[in-house]
Amino acid sequence: MSQDRPFDLSLTEEQRITRQSMQRFAEQQLRSVARPADEAGCVPEGFLERTTELGLALLPVPEALGGAGEPRSPMSNVLNAEDLGYGDVSLALATLAPQGFINAILDFGDEAQQQAFLPRLAQEHFVAATVALMEKRATFEPAELATQAVREGDDYVLRGEKRMVILGSSAELLLVIAAFDGVPAAFVVERGSAGLTTASEEYMGLRAVDTATVTLADVRVPASHRLANFDLERLVDLSRLGIAAIAVGCCQAVLDYCIPYVKERKAFGEPIAWRQSVAFTVADMAIELEGMRLLVWQAASRAEQGLPFHREAYLARVACAERAMQIGTDGVQLFGGAGFIRDYPLEMWYRNLRAVGVLEGAATV
Amino acid sequence: MINFELPTKLQNLQKMSHQVAAGIFRPISRKYDKIEHGPTPEELKPLAQMRNAMRGTNDEKADKKGASSSAAGSRNGANLAGIVAGEELCWGDVGLLLSVPGSGLGNAAIQAVGTPEQKEKFGKLYCAMAITEPGAGSDSAAIATTAELDGDEWVLNGEKIFCTAGERGDAIVVWATLDKSKGKAAIKSFIVPQGAPGMTLTRVEQKMGLRISDTAALSFDNCRIPKENILGSAEIADTEAARRKAFGGVMQTFDSTRPAVAAMALGLARAALEITRELLGKEGVQADYSRTLYNSSAIEAELYRMEADLEAARLMTLKAAWMADNGQPNSMHASMCKAKAGRMGNDVTLKCVELCGELGYSEQYLLEKFARDSKIIDIFEGTQQIQQLIVARHLIGLSSRELK
Fold first, then answer.
1. Which of A72, A221, B195, B354 has the fewest CB within 10 Å, making it most exposed?
2. Residue B315 near chain A (CB below 8 Å)
3. A154 part of contact set with chain B, CB < 8 Å
4. Range B364-393 average pLDDT
């Protein structure tokens, strides 16, 4: 309301340029290695180090703390997530994990906390950091946490188990979300803290990225490590937008991959794309994808402008969780038997897209 | 810079439209659903005068605005304004909106391609559009009504059906072919004043919904109109490229009208959801976005899904209109939003009836009417399936011969 801007769907010049390099990076460093990485169950050698050329960790960190001092931009972050998701879902999550941690420190940490943690991440080399929110429970509800923090003298003591923590095994710093006095709170936990153990867990998809179980057996953290202005709803909303944006990118990859195939693949003497049952499936994939993308953009743009965006992020999550899975399913179906074969990427996208309705806390924009 | 918030000017338009919808349409919504046929409702006449007054000033403003805002970047023009106002007014009543004199598709066509003289003469009249025939629906290139030049007059022969405002309109824009053997290129549109010699109103349809909006069948038997009543050129393009261009011009109207029709579904679905939330709220159903979908009750989850679907359709419609305002080719996006909004409108209004049970089904509330009204939105101005065809052809790069 304060600024009377026109309704506008055009990117800024900077966003346009960034998208080009992000897309090139996604093509060369993510898409091309996605399948072998999925098979190997880990990120390719040197991959995380190469992601530093994007400068994602440096961007929002104030110059005084070693960063580039760019304004915090959920909208630009959503565009980045979309482009990286086009390359690969797992590797996009790996790439974005440290920035997710940084964004949380920027949003919820006080000045002293920003000074304490951000310089360690705003480095030329890759520093793994992550947010640990999920827990081992069907119908996980972010606000109902089993992981507990209790106050003991100048410290907090954390006890519980966090799941699906992206880069959890290697992260130097983890932002652990736990309940303190029944209220969700966020604690920065150092790698190597006594009582902290991590173990990689295998999932249906996201195989190329480390999705770890983080066990906190009375982990002691100083009181200064509890983020001063933590807002769980904001964290969850911004994370859902990041995950949904990655899904939008992946769904675009599915669509772009299916179009030439249905044109080339012949059945009954003509391309299968000439059949309405096939063509309409492709049309619906594009229609639903367009809706997904705009829902994510709307919420991110409101977040960027400082407007309330919880409702918008919630609706984006609802739509993306369901529609992304449908697009992943349609992709496999359009390829028929070939969609089920690991020579093609369709089955991998299908497995990865199932995570969209499951994952919480990752890729905070 | 990406921004989905409406500027003050459009917010004001939204508020004003909502006042009209709530103050004028809603109170008489049920009454005219029951009356069905008859003359233009008296309550709508002041609106027509207001519209005509606004149309003049808006045209002036749009011209000035167009020049100044191209430098500033994003333009918010007539298409976007049409969506914003349309959604609000259809929150009130779709059928009544279509019955406001001057709201006809014919008006849009004359505004788009008419000569200054035609705009002067017919611009402020209520102009309907007659395309569909008993033997030609979605396949508008197959129309069989003919037009032949005889001296200073065109002579029209044929049958038109499903013509919105065909009874109440002051004039009808009639699609006819100059030469059936020349296909699409020979199809032209003609402004036929109501009651022209040889023109007969043969039937007014009784419909499931949109009852107050008159849907007429018209017969043309050596109907004579002045030579200058043709819209656009009388030339028949003779090269393939020129042919495509000529018919493309006709189809271009859809780039603006399809998002406008999508906006009808937005208004209807929002109206249905609001009433449903209110009725369910009395039963303790609280969909306040506080818990994940999977920890919500089935009925709350339905509300979230419907709202997400509505919001997606809404954003797609705004985008298609914004593209049109900014001179970006939007045929595919116009079809995408029409397809999405059309089915969303059906799904949401029908589900709202179901969720509210007997109250939803009862004529005591408007939910059942919304569900009846919504069906046509997925049919007129191109059915769901036609939109899917268009989207698929654009995406995959197929001709109408390849993807039939």
1. B195
2. yes
3. no
4. 97
pLDDT band at B50 (very low <50, low <70, confident <90, very high): confident
**Nearest partner of B144 among B172, B178, B105, B106, judged by Cα:** B178
Domain end residue (candidates: A225, A240, A260): A225
If one counts the domains in chain A, the total is 3
ipTM of the complex: 0.97
Determine, for residues B322 and A321 on separate chains, whether the beta-carbon distance falls below 8 Å: no
Q: Please write the tens of the pLDDT for every residue from A268-299.
A: 999 999 999 999 999 999 999 999 999 999 99
Is the pTM here over 0.90, yes or no?
Answer: yes
Structurally, chain B folds into a number of domains equal to: 3
Residues of B in contact with A316 (CB under 8 A): 308
In a domain, A137, yes or no: yes
**Which chain A residues are within 8 Å of B75, Cβ to Cβ?**
6
Q: Which of B7, B292, B385 faces A141 most closely, judged by CB atoms?
A: B292
Mean pLDDT of A245-270: 98
Give the CA-trace dihedral at B33, B34, B35, B36, to 10 degrees.
50
Residue A1's pLDDT is: 45
Among partner residues A262, A287, A316, which is closest to B391 by beta-carbon distance? Answer: A287
- List, for residues A59-70, the tens digit of each pLDDT value: 999 999 999 999
* Burial label, A166 (beta-carbon count in 10 A; 0-12, 13-18, 19+): buried
Q: Which chain B residue shows the shortest CA-CA distance from A272?
A: B403
What is the length of chain A?
Answer: 365
Question: CB-based contact (8 Å) between B13 and chain A?
Answer: no
Give percent of chain A above pLDDT 90: 99
* Structural domain for A297, as ranges: 232-357
Interface touch B305/A322, C-beta < 8 Å = yes
DSSP helix/strand/coil, B161: strand
What is the pLDDT at residue B72? Answer: 58
Asked if residues A153 and A221 have their Cβ atoms less than 8 Å apart, the reply is no
Residue B300 annotated among the catalytic residues of the structure = no
Q: Flag whether residue B298 sits within 8 Å of chain A, measured between CB atoms.
A: no
Q: Does B251 touch chain A (CB under 8 A)?
A: no
Angstrom distance (rounded) from CA B227 to CA A297 = 51
Amino acid, res. A311: R
Beta bridge partner(s), residue A177: A186
Task: Report residue A271: phi and psi, to 5°.
Answer: -60, 140
A86 lies in a domain? yes
pLDDT > 90 fraction of chain B, expressed in percent and rounded:
77
Do B345 and B209 share a domain, yes or no?
no
Q: Is the pLDDT of residue A2 over 50?
A: no
**Which residues on chain B are in Cβ contact (under 8 Å) with A312?**
311
